[in-house]
Prior knowledge:
By secondary structure, the chain is α+β, with helices and mostly antiparallel strands. Helices cover 35% and strands 22% of the residues.
Amino acid sequence: xxxxxxxxxxxxxxxxxxxxxxxxxxxxxxxxxxxxxxxxxxxxxxxxxxxxxxxxxxxxxxxxxxxxxxxxxxxxxxxxxxxxxxxxxxxxxxxxxxxxxxxxxxxxxxxxxxxxxxxxxxxxxxxxxxxxxxxxxxxxxxxxxxxxxxxxxxxxxxxxxxxxxxxxxxxxxxxxxxxxxxxxxxxxxxxxxxxxxxxxxxxxxxxxxx
Length: 210
């Protein structure tokens, strides 16, 4: 499924989205430890102070500032995942699909979104929010938007408050069978890295589904 990016947003922020779809079987019975062990060996667990110097993190932080979001208070999702992993060598365990996306995001620092494709209605567009538009996040909390935000929306409404909060309606649940995976690049992040992050997510889903 393609996502149309509003041209004014594309020009201002250099946003490009790489997407793919795949069929999955969501499970909670999987062995994630080999992947985490590989990450622990690959990453310097004492390097939290150096994260801000990573070029992908810098690009995402600059993007957040331009959106009016303080990235030291609301961190880019990939940076937050990496910091948590460097703190305790673990990730939040949700299910095999979400965990695969989180590992790919830690590896690449590219934000990854995963959505239940069967819950998406019509076409998807990345656009500016409407004033007083309402959004129910993955925790079930409702937000009333100012109109300054960027959102990913289908014909029914918002599925993602860009670039850091998913909607409850299209989140991956136990009965999800068909997903959309989205990798985001902005000014300073190569599109090929977003493509790799999405393809790596599919690869890791397959590993965790065996």
